[in-house]
Design brief:
Blueprint (H helix, E strand, L loop, with lengths): L2 E7 L5 H17 L3 E7 L3 H7 L6 E4 L10 H9 L8 H8 L1 H10 L7 E5 L13 E4 L10 E3 L6 H7 L5 E6 L4 E8 L2 E10 L6 H5 L4 E4 L6 H18 L4 E9 L7 E8 L9 H8 L4 H10 L6
Parallel strand pairs: 1-2, 1-3
Antiparallel strand pairs: 4-7, 5-6, 5-7, 8-9, 8-11, 9-10, 11-12
Helix pairs in contact: 1-10
């Protein structure tokens, strides 16, 4: 029987999401017949390494956010020579760094929103882009810290005062329309989900609170846009060098009619595996149960690539 250690929790802003993912994964892998070792990760890296001795056959990385999906824990597991799920060091680091991933997507000819990196303090004095525009941390996931500045609002000073995500931020044009996402397993796009958030946009609460969003899959959009979203998700996965499963998030501007404009926002190399998460929902639509999805990830586990 294969021994699999499941890392979950962590020390990022997404700890609670990771705890939820981890509990789901542990139960699924146990149900799939794996000898499963839950490892709740905290600030003591030495304790994590100790929990991985003797070496398991694989690590299921259910960590989210910084130190979990940015290449840090991946480097530790490479050093320990333990195969792990999801992407390796380089792809994880690139995907987590919004400026770096935008550069990769642009060089690959993938459609991205216009924008740039600025010092956060510049927001005190002026709008760096025409409104509406989006302000994003460079290295956070799950929409943590994301703000939309619309015409007539006076929140720039408040955003700067409460900013906790480093000296710089990414500002991008706000793309109207719909939020779409596409899960990828290996080189296969699963389907397109149309996400309607219960809040002003698809923020942290929309993603993880029960009833926070409503998912339509397959998305009822123009066939050409549907096919393009599937193709772009696979292309972005490949451009970053991802492996295992990922999820591509898009804005789809159909406000002037279809087929509309697709804009790639980001690739998530550690898609959520909570009860409200999108990747398991898409896998289920394709006939892949949650235990089968988790087992596939374990069997795809690698290191040092």
């Amino acid at each position: 029987m294969k021994r699999v250690a499941v890392l979950y929790g962590g020390i990022s802003a997404e700890r609670e999401v990771s705890l939820s993912s981890g509990h789901q994964v542990v139960a699924a892998l146990q149900g799939a017949g794996y000898d499963t070792i839950p490892v709740e990760v905290g600030p003591d890296l030495g304790a994590v390494i100790a929990a991985l001795s003797p070496k398991p056959d694989a690590v299921f990385n259910a960590l989210h956010g910084r130190f979990g999906e940015d290449g840090v824990i991946q480097g530790v597991l490479d050093w320990l020579d333990i195969p792990y799920t999801h992407s390796g060091v380089r792809a994880s680091a690139l995907a987590m760094d919004k400026a770096a991933s935008r550069a990769v997507f642009a060089s690959a000819g993938l459609p991205i929103a216009s924008g740039r990196v600025i010092d956060v303090g510049l927001l005190e004095d002026t709008d760096p882009l025409p409104r509406p525009y989006v302000v994003k941390p460079l290295n956070e996931g799950s929409s943590v810290g994301v703000e939309i500045l619309r015409v007539g609002e006076n929140r720039r000073h408040e955003i700067v005062r409460e900013w906790r995500y480093g000296p710089q931020c990414l500002v991008e044009e706000f793309v109207p329309g719909r939020e779409l996402t596409v899960g990828v397993m290996g080189a296969r796009a699963l389907t397109v989900t149309d996400i309607a958030a219960a809040h002003a946009f698809y923020d942290y609460d929309s993603k993880y609170a029960s009833g926070g969003s409503f998912h339509t899959l397959p998305a009822a959009i123009h066939p050409a846009a549907f096919t393009q979203a599937m193709d772009l998700a696979v292309a972005a996965h490949a451009a970053l060098g991802c492996r295992g499963a990922s999820r591509a998030d898009f804005r789809y501007d159909d406000t002037a009619g279809e087929p509309g404009r697709l804009v790639l926002l980001e690739i998530n190399t550690q898609p959520g595996l909570t009860p409200t998460s999108l990747l398991p929902e898409q896998a289920a639509y394709c006939g892949i149960t949650f235990p089968a999805l988790c087992a596939w990830m374990v069997e795809e586990a690698q290191c040092r690539v």
